[in-house]
Amino acid sequence: MHCKILGVPMQDGAGRMGCEMGPSALRTAGLITALRELGHDVTDLGTIVPDPAESVTHPNPAIKSLPEVVAWTKAITEAAYEASLDGMPIFLGGDHMLAGGSIAGVARRALELGRPQFVLWLDAHPDFHTLDTTTSGNLHGVPLAYACGRPGFSGVFPELIAHVDPVNVCALGLRSVDPAERSALFAAGVTVHDMRAIDEHGMATLLRSFLERVAANNGLLHVSFDVDFLDPAIAPAVGTTVPGGATFREAHLVMEMLHDSGLVSSLDLVELNPFLDERGRTATLVVDLTASLMGRRIMERPTRSH
């Protein structure tokens, strides 16, 4: 696999500062080395830099940093489209708003290839608010809605050349969903597996069903991984902790199944806030999980002394 690394040090969509340091932390924790040790060709494309923010407004007074987020989205979309031409883009965040651009870019590439774009959303939150429904005003709560072409973004955010059909989205591991998002997810046809569903049916059964659907449709699969998908007991370096997340083994199982499927064509690693970490343990875990997605097996995982 030709992996293309893109750093996205944005934090304008988040409610607290710190995740702009995420790309540096993932590089420091050995992400590129881990990928190369697995035999992948890795090109580090450096850091995405947006153009200066232009004046843009919206009637919702709660919204924060709108011009900056719009500028980031434009830059990320173009970078994602270009990087997806001949490799697997891996976006190092940065807050989850970056997914609005990364998904928009790879979906445009999928449209040109005549293949459907699917999204696996690994997150405690669905991020399915629109600019009208967000009450926090933190725009890392809207990227999936934007990438799926929900109404309310036109004239403010970049116009989508291609959007993802919501029925091609699986949100796995949800455990914090606002009422407006809950009704919108149901109406749009997004596949939702919250932590109760995982407890009742098991991670493997639910994920396997979705992956079989991607394969049956010859789809391209974008995986958007938010650190708060994980339980905060094992991954404290995130500003939106929600108890009861995926365990160490559940998370590695997801990544190993994704590798076995051979379907993943692009990846987000988002919301890592090194300021909140403990001696780099969350960054190291994210690198290990990415290695599992890219082919590392249990028998190859080194034991560390601390």
Q: Major sheet, described briefly? A: 8 strands, parallel
Q: Indicate the CATH class.
A: Alpha Beta
Individual helix count: 10
Could you tell me the CATH topology label: Arginase, Chain A
CATH architectural designation: 3-Layer(aba) Sandwich
Q: Based on helices, strands and strand pairing, what is the structural class?
A: alpha/beta
Give average pLDDT, whole number.
Answer: 96
Strand content: 15-25%
Q: Tell me the strand order in the biggest sheet.
A: 2-1-3-8-7-4-5-6
Question: What does this entry look like structurally?
Answer:
Strands 2-1-3-8-7-4-5-6 form an eight-stranded parallel sheet, sandwiched between helices. Helix 3 (66-83) runs parallel beside helix 4 and helix 8 runs parallel beside helix 9. The protein has helices at residues 22-28, 31-37, 66-83, 98-113, 143-147, 179-188, 195-201, 203-216, 248-261, 281-293; strands at residues 2-8, 41-47, 88-93, 117-122, 169-174, 191-194, 220-226, 264-270. It contains ten helices and eight strands. The longest helix has 18 residues, at 66-83. It has one domain (2-298): Ureohydrolase domain (Arginase, Chain A, 3-Layer(aba) Sandwich), CATH 3.40.800. By secondary structure, the protein is of the alpha/beta class. Helix content is 36%, strand content 16%. The mean pLDDT is 96.
